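Retro notes, structure queue

What went well: the backlog is down to a handful. What didn't: a couple of records were mislabeled last round, so from now on we paste the full input next to the output in the thread. Example, using NDE1, mitochondrial external NADH dehydrogenase from Suillus placidus:
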Amino acid sequence: MFKARLSVVCGRVQPRRAKPSVAAARTFTSSAPRSKQRLVILGSGWGGYEILRAIDKKRWNVTMVSPTNAFNFTPLLASCAVGTLEFRCVVEPVRRFSPQVVCYQAWCDTIDFKQKTLKCMPATAPLEFEGSASARLAGTTTKETSYPPGTGNAFNLRYDKLVIAVGAYSQTFNVPGVKEHAHFLKDVRDARAIRTRIIDCFEQANQPVLSDVQRRNLLNFCIVGGGPTGVEFSAELHDLLHAEIERHYPSLARMAKITLYDVAPNILGSFDKSLGVYAENKFRRDGISIKTRHHVERVEKDRMFVKEQGEVPFGLLVWSTGLAPNPLIQSIDSLEKHDKTQGLFTDQNLNVITKEGHADPDVWAIGDAANIKGQLHPATAQVANQKGKYLAQKLNKIVKDQEHTKPFEFHNQGSLAYLGDWKAIYDRSSADTVKTKETGRVAWLLWRSAYFTMTLSIRNKILVPTYWFLNWIFGRDLTRF
Ligand code: FAD
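Corresponding output:
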């Protein structure tokens, strides 16, 4: 069961990478026998990783290109960011499938649909870079992306069939300073950076030389974006403050404040109205301040400027205001795109559509980077994963020369959001069949069982409940990483 997101959710903001100063890109074919058809999957997220899991690896010559060598289980990232779960619980390594599958930790920068080639840039630290491991990371990553931005020698790959599953980036609405000074929550590295920052704020505020005003500023936690990601992170942070922080930093806990900002009149706009009101009431009772109809105009180091409020100092700012198109998708001009989301249009079999209106039989697009023409599916893991499953079935038939003409059908399994203190909301009111709404402890039980069920590997099926249990007994770990 997945949480469907009708409002856009945050995606990774990655800076536009400078054009590589590389001479000619080298062309590679994969090492698997040429007799098999080459299937290239771009992206190891909810869509791409599902295909990787389910594809017939004996019949296809599969190559995965992704700047990260792991799949991120996004629904549990907010829990990781506050230590309710450990980082290991929310990732699945892509390498699990190698050497059967060839994996390149790289960015795909250009697709030539006529020649059926891809131009890729390694997303690893450059070979010539000297220095310690941390210096290497610091030198090749930026605050917006914890992955090296594309370094070294470009290379080309050929494909027979291509799946585009590159997701989307975070929307910043070009608010100055967001990329430099805010935290995003898209993958496990972001979760780790946020967790470190939270503990930093308390340790800094604990120094005897600080004034109370400085302490309050450091312990002002601001979240911008009242969609499910912003709400769940606020709830998880509230749990942390009212458990371990209250126990270990009692006087500082009283100074800490959580504020959730949104430009819309209500939070959780994608949920049934009554559930949004339930969430707002719960947050108000818990002391989480909700500032709807508020516009952040500029962000600087440790402060932001809000139209309705003026200058707001903060210790941590988490930004989660929706999706912006992936630059790879932006760079494609030969295919039809959705006017608003700028995602690639596909037909009901998920094949991309050329500007001339023909479906390309060898290229499919799924997940947050794509929309079926004439249908509006939310940008969620639920949709990406169902499309991935559908496409893997189709490809497994294609490779056996069997027909697979059944169009993709989305089955809405409802929306869940955690609200803190073992309470949640569950919304299935937009589902076609059973219409249900649930709040409180029952919804929380649904939330936990849904994400436990969805967890992919046996290893994480053991780790996730183990950490839930350990942290319930011993409390969250406040070590700074
Ligand atoms: P992604 O999962 O984003 O994967 C994209 C992949 O492409 C990544 O591996 C990326 O590194 C790679 N990539 C990017 N650019 C390139 C390139 N140029 N070349 C090659 N690879 C590239 N949805 C729900 O349904 N329920 C939830 O509870 C839920 N919770 C969420 C919580 C958080 C914190 C976040 C951020 C999202 C959440 N979502 C949830 C939304 C869900 O995660 C996305 O809709 C889903 O990840 C989309 O899947 P995707 O495969 O299209 O993209």
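Agreed that this is the format going forward. Reviewer comment attached to the example: Confidence is low (pLDDT under 50) at residues 1-23, 129-145.
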